[in-house]
Amino acid sequence: MATSNGLRVDMIIRTLFIALLAGIAFPSTCLAQTAREQARSDFAPYGSMMGTQFRHMKLWFAGKLGNWKLAAYELDQIERDLAAAALPSGAPAQESLVKRTQELRETVNARDWTRFADAYGALTNECNGCHRATGHGFITVQIPTSSPFSDQAFEDQVAEGRSLARRICGECHGLPDRSTATVARRFGAPGLEDVVRRPSFSEDSVRGLLTSNHRRLGPDQTMPNPRLTNYEIDEIVAYFRELRSGANR
Ligand code: HEC
Ligand code: HEC
Fold it and tell me: Of 75, 133, 181, 230, whose Cβ has the fewest other Cβ atoms within 10 Å?
């Protein structure tokens, strides 16, 4: 009897174990599916408005900090979101919305901050116009005052690095995109394009060079410690990375 009892217990444990596994595998996928459907219906009737809200904010900071590639990207996403969604009932015709995004696009292409700010305001009014027309007049969007996305830098890291390098390093080093490249070379400093082609070049070595406290370097001992902040170093390293990929092409 002990054996058969042992078997029964064994079977019960095994059944429980299988049930447990199944419990983990199946209902959770079902739950995930319901959650997804729930999320979808939360955003109804007009696509993912929270997504649009995020992009609307990011678009502003991209434009404000002159990261026009990012601005164009966010605008693409807004246009895509708004075009993909079914029009809620009562919504004004899409034409004026399309017109507003097109006007904004032109200012992004022209990299024109002043006109961008105006066109952004006009788009924002258009957002609110539809909210009012569809019985959601209590939802008002506005120009954001500060970015809630503390994990995203809205500057273009490479562009910032290039302008830093032009300003600080360009005192001595020639930059490839600088018309005065030949004039700029001082103290026998190599052009930055030559620097990135050196076999000894690595991002770590530049980082080390820019973070260390040495004041002098090289045979002429003329490279001062530029005393950059960490994020400025990241920007210069990003610029060097781009220079290098250009140099290797
Ligand atoms: C064609 C109509 C229409 C346009 C255009 C529109 N919205 Fe909306 N928006 C709605 C409707 C309808 C709701 C309420 C239902 C929903 O959330 O989908 C809404 C909701 C919202 C919400 C509230 C989301 C929440 O759950 O808290 C925000 C924020 C928002 N919209 C931002 C924007 C922004 C930013 C723009 C412009 C870039 C915009 N909307 C353009 C129709 C529109
Ligand atoms: C006052 C002039 C001066 C300034 C400003 C300056 N450098 Fe230099 N740098 C030099 C000289 C001279 C050398 C050449 C030393 C040598 O050949 O070893 C050099 C060499 C270098 C090297 C090559 C090191 C190696 O191991 O080959 C790098 C990388 C470099 N500089 C980066 C920078 C960066 C980045 C900046 C701006 C943040 C900068 N430099 C600003 C004068 C300068």
Answer: 230
The H-assigned helical ranges of 2-112 are: 2-43, 49-64, 68-84, 94-109
Nearest CA among 78, 122, 117 for reference residue 100? 122
Q: Is the CB of 172 under 6 A from ligand 2?
A: yes
Angle at 232 between CA 226 and CA 233, to 5 degrees: 70
3-state class of 151 per DSSP? coil
Q: Which two tokens stand for residue 244?
A: 């290098």
Residue 78 is predicted with a pLDDT of 94
Give tens-digit pLDDT for 90-121: 888 888 999 999 999 999 999 999 999 999 99
Q: Ligand 1, residue 97: give the atom nearest the CA.
A: 5
**pLDDT for the residue numbered 169:** 87
* 113-133 helix and 94-109 helix, angle to the nearest 10 degrees: 160
Report pLDDT digits (tens) over 128-174.
999 999 999 999 999 999 999 999 999 999 999 999 999 888 888 88
Hey, whose CA ends up nearest to atom 17 of ligand 2?
218
Mutate to test the pocket of ligand 1, among 42, 131, 138, 141 (most ligand atoms within 8 A of CB): 131
